């Protein structure tokens, strides 16, 4: 067919066109017949499968055996009871599923409520912690201010205090002999500023020398 088509394209004649048309019609008919046969084979295969398929046993009495079953009044009664039990079991299974679903929904709602309460509690605790931290910081600032004021007051008091005087007694003096000591240093207040022999030091203290070392 391909060779004939090439020939027709090279030398198109009336006879060649007629043959080409007839060949196309023949091929189209063959294709249609092939499709119809394939469809028929498919349907025949499907019917054969259905024909060979065995039916499912009802097993109304619950007895498993491959023999024929004969039903009398007793067998019918047993079959009815068994069917009722099956229906009751199916209904109970539905109820159990519905109850399980309801319990799951309740558990989910309780969990969500607890999570919401926990979230609120954490938020409140966070706010309380922030307030406590702020109060502690404020109290720390106040304590440092009080300590700073106390230090300044102590420094001012030490600065405004009058310097003390140091009286040195040498070994062998009459006063030291009466005390039974070899060397004594006594710090006196400034009430005796009029006493002679007082010499100030660099730090502002005044030293009272014994009589024999005075000028």
Using only C-alpha atoms, the radius of gyration works out to: 62 Å
Number of domains: 3
Q: How many alpha or pi helices?
A: 4
Number of strands: 4
Going by helix content, strand content and strand pairing, the class is: alpha+beta
Query: Which band does the percent of strand residues land in?
Result: 5-15%
Biggest sheet: strands, sense, closure?
A: 4 strands, mixed
Shape: elongated
What topology, given as strand order, has the largest sheet?
A: 2-1-4-3
Mean pLDDT: 78
Instruction: State the helicity in percent bands.
Output: 55-70%
Question: Distance N terminus to C terminus?
Answer: 155 Å
Q: What is the string of helix and strand elements?
A: HHHEHEEE
Parts with pLDDT < 50 across at least 5 consecutive residues: 179-197
3D structure, described in words:
It is elongated, with a radius of gyration of 62 Å. Strands 2-1-4-3 form a 4-stranded mixed sheet, with no helix packed on it. β3 and β4 (206-208) form a beta hairpin. It has 3 domains: 2-49; 73-161; 162-213, no CATH class. The protein contains 4 helices and 4 strands; from the N terminus they run αααβαβββ. The termini are far apart. It is α+β, with helices and mostly antiparallel strands.
Which key terms come to mind for this protein?
215 residues; alpha+beta; 3 domains; four-stranded mixed β-sheet; 4 helices; 4 strands; elongated
Short summary:
The chain is α+β, with helices and mostly antiparallel strands and 215 residues long.
């Amino acid at each position: 067919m391909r060779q004939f088509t090439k020939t027709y394209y090279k030398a198109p004649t009336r006879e060649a066109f007629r043959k080409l048309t007839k060949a196309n019609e023949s091929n189209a008919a063959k294709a249609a017949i092939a499709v119809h046969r394939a469809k028929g084979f498919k349907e025949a295969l499907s019917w054969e499968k259905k024909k060979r398929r065995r039916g499912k046993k009802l097993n109304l009495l619950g007895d498993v055996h491959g023999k024929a079953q004969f039903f009398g009044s007793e067998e019918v009664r047993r079959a009815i009871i068994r069917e009722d039990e099956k229906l009751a079991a199916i209904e109970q299974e539905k109820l159990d599923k519905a109850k399980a679903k309801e319990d799951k929904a309740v558990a989910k709602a309780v969990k969500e409520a607890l999570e919401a309460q926990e979230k609120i509690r954490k938020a409140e605790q966070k706010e309380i912690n922030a307030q406590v931290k702020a109060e502690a910081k404020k109290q720390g600032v106040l304590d440092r201010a009080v300590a700073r004021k106390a230090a300044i007051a102590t420094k001012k008091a030490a600065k405004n205090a009058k310097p003390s005087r140091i009286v040195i007694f040498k070994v062998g003096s009459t006063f030291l002999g009466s005390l039974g000591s070899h060397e004594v240093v006594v710090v006196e207040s400034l009430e005796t500023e009029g006493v002679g022999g007082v010499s100030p030091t660099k730090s502002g203290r005044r030293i009272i020398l014994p009589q024999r070392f005075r000028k």
